[in-house]
Task: inverse folding
C-alpha cells in the first residue's frame, strides 16, 4: 500500500467520523494515533504489514501499556478498513486479566479524609466521598444524584437510576445517606437539580476531574499518599468492604457495581500485593 494513501485520506476520514457524531475526544484520538504511525513510516513510499508490526513493536519496547498499544491498533485498523485495506490489519495484543486490585485506600485513611474535609469545611467534598464510598458508583455517575432522584428514591426502595456509557442501572443507597445528602443540599439552598455543582457555573454538575482534584487536595492536607486518594479507589473500598461483610456474594456485588461480567468483580476476592507481602512477612521463615 502506498503511504501517500494514508496521508491523503486522513482528513476526509476524520470528517466522516464527525458526520457520524463521534465524540470530539474520540476522533481527535484517532487522528493522533494514525498521524503518529504515518510519522513513523517517514519517507517510505509504500508500507507492508511488517512495517505495521514493527511500529507496534517499537511502542512495546518503549514500555507502553498493552491497553494503550491496543488502542493504537484499533485506531489504525479502523482506518485501514475505511481505506479497504483490511488485509493489512493486525490483531490486538492479549492482556492478562487483573489478578487483584492495587492501591485501594484503607478504611483508616478514608476516615481521615472525612475528618479533614469536615474540619476544613469542605462539605461538598465530604459528601462526595461518602456518596462514592457508600454506593460504589463511578465518579461519572455522581451527577445523577439530584434533589429529585434522591427524593424519589425514598419511595423506590432507595434506588437511584444512573447512566454509564448509554446504559442505565439501579444504584442502592442507604436511607441515612439519602437523608444526609438532602439535608446538605438544603443547607446550600439547593431546592432542585444537581446536588454538587461546578464552582464557576452553578447550572452544571461538578465534573469528574474536579472531584479528583478535590480529593487529591484533601489527601495533601491529610498527609495521605495521593496514589490511594482518588474516586475509583473509593469504589474499590466499597467493593472490598461489601465482600468482607457479605462473603461470597459476588453476583450481588457485580449488580451493585454495574459489572456485566462477574469475572471483573472476582478481582475483589484476591489479595493485593501489599496484603500478600504482609502475610509472607508474618511467616518469618
Result:
Amino acid at each position: 500500500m502506498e503511504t501517500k494513501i494514508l496521508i491523503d485520506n486522513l482528513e476526509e476520514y476524520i470528517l466522516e467520523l464527525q458526520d457520524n457524531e463521534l465524540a470530539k475526544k474520540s476522533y481527535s484520538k484517532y487522528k493522533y494515533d494514525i498521524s503518529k504511525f504515518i510519522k513513523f513510516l517517514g519517507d517510505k513510499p509504500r508500507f507492508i504489514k511488517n512495517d505495521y508490526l514493527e511500529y507496534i513493536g517499537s511502542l512495546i519496547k518503549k514500555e507502553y501499556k498493552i491497553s494503550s498499544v491496543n488502542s493504537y491498533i484499533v485506531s489504525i485498523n479502523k482506518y485501514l478498513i475505511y481505506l479497504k485495506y483490511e488485509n493489512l490489519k493486525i490483531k490486538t495484543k492479549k492482556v492478562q486479566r487483573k489478578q487483584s486490585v492495587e492501591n485501594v485506600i484503607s478504611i483508616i485513611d478514608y476516615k481521615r479524609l472525612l475528618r479533614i474535609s469536615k474540619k476544613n469545611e469542605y462539605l461538598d467534598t465530604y459528601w462526595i466521598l461518602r456518596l462514592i464510598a457508600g454506593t460504589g458508583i463511578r465518579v461519572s455517575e455522581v451527577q445523577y444524584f439530584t434533589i429529585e432522584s434522591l427524593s424519589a428514591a425514598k419511595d423506590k426502595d432507595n434506588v437511584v437510576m444512573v447512566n454509564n456509557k448509554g446504559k442505565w442501572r439501579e444504584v442502592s443507597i442507604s436511607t441515612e445517606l439519602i437523608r444526609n445528602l438532602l439535608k446538605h443540599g438544603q443547607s446550600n439552598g439547593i431546592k432542585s437539580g444537581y446536588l454538587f455543582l461546578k464552582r464557576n457555573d452553578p447550572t452544571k454538575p461538578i465534573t469528574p476531574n474536579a472531584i479528583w482534584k478535590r480529593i487529591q487536595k484533601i489527601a495533601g492536607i491529610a498527609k495521605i499518599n495521593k496514589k490511594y486518594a482518588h474516586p475509583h479507589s473509593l469504589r474499590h473500598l466499597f467493593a472490598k468492604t461489601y465482600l468482607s461483610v457479605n462473603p461470597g456474594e459476588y453476583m450481588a456485588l457485580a449488580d451493585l457495581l454495574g459489572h456485566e461480567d462477574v469475572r471483573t468483580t472476582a478481582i475483589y476476592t484476591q489479595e493485593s500485593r501489599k496484603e500478600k507481602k504482609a502475610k509472607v512477612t508474618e511467616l518469618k521463615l
Q: What stands out?
A: The radius of gyration is 23 Å. The mean pLDDT is 90.
